[in-house]
Specification:
single chain, TolA/TonB C-terminal domain, 2 domains, 5-stranded antiparallel β-sheet, 4-stranded mixed β-sheet, 9 helices, globular
């Protein structure tokens, strides 16, 4: 009996640890399985995606109505969503917006998550009118550009090889030129004589920002953070198919060459 009580407490503590609250309180990701699915780039990127994407329904914002949406889902080991259910409570406009955001999340491929280890997970997206107004002031826009967002019917994305026009800077300059003009060699990397390569992968959204940012090949000394800063600085012109802006998976390699050093 004592053993059963201890076991129950351990299970409860384990589940509590895996209920991850985001700092903005806009969302929670409840990790209720032993091998949970990982969002591309980690929890920080997931939070940034929500902050960047969310568009408060106008009628609900004007009335000051708040709400929460719970999404139950299963992601397989290839990063594909096998099951998605929007719980039927709260305003339908909140549910539609939460569903749209969810569809833009990329999930990691992980062969160690075999079929038997899969299970239902849950994401909560909260809508708070006052917090949203503060968010809008900080990010500088209240809605995604209509001429671009109207082209997006799902979370589908394309690779560089599938688009007619690859993403580039809005000014039409090369990304390498932009990086060369704006890079700040990280102080720690400079002091330690670190040279090497950072490889990053991310989605260029049709409205000119990036999401789902992931470091594929890492380099210490602040080089990962500098790569992330540079890629987010760029005003992107999105990839296009048949003249229409689409979500594009983009990979970029940035070489950090310390004076007197080489990149292997």
């Amino acid at each position: 009996m004592k053993f059963q009580k201890k076991a129950s407490l351990l299970i409860l503590n384990f589940l509590w640890l895996f209920a991850i609250p985001m700092m903005s309180q806009q969302m929670h990701l409840f990790r209720t399985v032993y091998y949970p699915a990982e969002p591309y780039g980690g929890l920080e990127e997931l939070e940034l995606l929500v902050k960047q994407e969310v568009v408060y329904p106008n009628t609900l914002l004007e009335s000051g109505e708040d709400g929460e949406v719970f999404i139950t889902f299963i992601v397989d080991y290839q990063g594909n969503v096998q099951f998605k259910h929007i719980e039927d409570h709260g305003d339908s406009l909140f549910r539609a917006e939460a569903s749209r955001i969810f569809d833009r999340i990329l999930w990691e491929k992980d062969p160690s998550r075999n079929q038997s280890g899969l299970g239902y997970e849950k994401l909560k997206i909260a809508f708070n009118a006052r917090k949203y107004e503060k968010l809008v002031k900080k990010r500088g826009y209240s809605a995604l550009p209509k001429e671009l967002s109207n082209n997006i019917t799902s979370g589908k994305y394309y690779t560089i090889n599938q688009v007619d026009e690859a993403p580039q800077t809005k000014e039409g300059n090369s990304i390498n030129a932009f990086v060369q003009n704006n890079i700040k060699y990280p102080a720690i990397a400079y002091q330690r004589g670190i040279s090497g390569r950072v490889t990053a992968e991310f989605i260029v959204e049709p409205y000119g920002k990036i999401s789902n940012f992931k470091i594929v090949e890492s380099l210490p000394g602040g080089c990962d953070a500098e790569t992330r800063r540079l890629m987010r600085m760029i005003e992107w012109a999105p990839g296009k198919i048949n003249g229409k802006a689409v979500r594009t998976l983009y990979r970029y390699q940035l070489n950090f060459v310390h004076p007197g050093g080489t990149v292997r």
